[in-house]
């Protein structure tokens, strides 16, 4: 059961939250700490722009991303930066709730609705009234619960399990998932009409491996949160190992590794030896081949395939003969003698271009006036 301001037995309700996967992150009038989205990379700047764009509206937002990327933080940021910031923010993990209990958790139940329902209970929608409801791991929701959710979104009202009264609500719904919901729709595991109701404004949270420039900032933040009064620094060899790691668990895994390393290090300095072995042995990022080397290899292969024919090689490469001559000469001047020395063939003059060529009267009449004057002068000198 979610924790509310009037709860008298926090321990019992915490046990209920662990069982149902529901939690009330903030409540009306509470001073919740502002969400910090750490990072200065291009993906993080884009993410913040999207949050600012959508926060002031009341549109339904779908947040996609791998596990550990911080999808709930993004949902909380949308809540805090919008007009519902003073209202409650309720998060429910659909994957943590047994299928038989999903409807009761979302919509509540009346007394005697099922075995063990000894009292009436408000569900997540009622708890989030005038605030925001996060449906985390939405892709794990059963088809029957999806049907009830669709009706609640369409009617903006819910009916408790075992009840007969419609309860109107004012709730902003944000959902999050690591699944491809479009693929789930095509496979028949997710309702298409519900997809169109929920995925109005999609936001993609990129994995940590695609924003490596933020790793140092995240490390500083994690150290500040976890060092517990100790002054801990990270040595260069440890930074290199962390930068080369693939981060399958994303930011959540980074915090786990930092916490473990703080406990393992001596002298207030985290070295590569303090990191888990699977991080230390992670392969380094693949080297990038210089563009000039790729170009040289392509020219060499094209000439070999065409029997050193410049015309055919240039056509194969999609460049002009002059460009091919120039690039080969440039590579050879730089000391690369693996490429053959291409000799330009002398240009064969047409008969009309010969020094003593006579121009026929018909061609002279078709030529421009300036050219006709030049041709007549040439003929006179020849005569």
TrEMBL record:
Feature: compositional bias, Basic residues: 363-375
Alphabetical UniProt keywords: ATP-binding, DNA-binding, Nucleotide-binding, Transcription, Transcription regulation
Domain Sigma-54 factor interaction: 37-263
TM ranges: none
Keyword Lyase annotated: no
Signal sequence extent: none
Location of region: Disordered: 1-34, 340-383
Basic and acidic residues: compositionally biased ranges: 10-20
A GO molecular-function descriptor: ATP binding
GO biological process terms, semicolon-separated: regulation of DNA-templated transcription
Protein name stated in the entry: Fis family transcriptional regulator
């Amino acid at each position: 059961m979610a924790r509310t301001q009037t709860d008298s037995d926090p321990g019992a309700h915490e046990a209920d939250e662990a069982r149902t996967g529901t939690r009330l992150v903030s409540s009306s009038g509470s001073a919740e700490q502002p969400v910090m989205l750490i990072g200065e990379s291009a993906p993080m700047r884009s993410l913040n722009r999207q949050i600012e764009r959508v926060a002031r509206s009341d549109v339904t937002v779908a947040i996609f991303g791998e596990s550990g990327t911080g999808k709930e933080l993004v949902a909380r940021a949308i809540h805090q930066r919008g007009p519902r910031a003073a209202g409650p923010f309720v998060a429910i993990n659909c994957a943590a709730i047994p299928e038989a209990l999903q409807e009761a958790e979302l919509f509540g139940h009346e007394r005697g609705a099922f075995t063990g329902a000894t009292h009436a209970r408000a569900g997540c929608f009622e708890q989030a009234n005038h605030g925001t409801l996060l449906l985390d791991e939405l892709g794990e929701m059963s088809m029957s619960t999806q049907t009830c959710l669709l009706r609640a979104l369409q009617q903006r009202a819910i009916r408790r399990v075992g009840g007969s009264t419609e309860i109107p609500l004012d709730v902003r719904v944000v959902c999050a998932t690591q699944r491809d919901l479009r693929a789930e729709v095509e496979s028949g595991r997710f309702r298409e009409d519900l997809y169109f109701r929920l995925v109005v404004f999609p936001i993609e949270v990129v994995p940590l491996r695609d924003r490596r420039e933020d790793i140092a900032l995240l490390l500083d933040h994690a150290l500040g949160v976890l060092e517990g009064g100790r002054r801990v620094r990270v040595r260069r060899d440890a930074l290199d190992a962390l930068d080369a790691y693939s981060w399958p668990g994303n930011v959540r895994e980074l915090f786990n590794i930092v916490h473990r390393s703080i406990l393992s290090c001596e002298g207030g300095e985290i070295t590569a030896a303090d990191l888990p072995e699977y991080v230390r042995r992670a392969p380094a990022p693949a080297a990038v081949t210089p563009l000039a080397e790729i170009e040289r290899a392509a020219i060499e292969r094209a000439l070999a395939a065409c029997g050193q024919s410049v015309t055919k090689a240039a056509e194969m490469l999609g460049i002009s003969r002059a460009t091919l001559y120039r690039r080969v000469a440039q590579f050879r001047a730089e000391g690369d003698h693996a490429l053959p020395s291409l000799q330009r063939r002398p240009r064969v003059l047409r008969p009309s271009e010969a020094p003593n060529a006579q121009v026929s009267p018909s061609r002279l009449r078709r030529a421009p006036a300036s050219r006709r004057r030049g041709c007549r002068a040439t003929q006179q000198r020849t005569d």
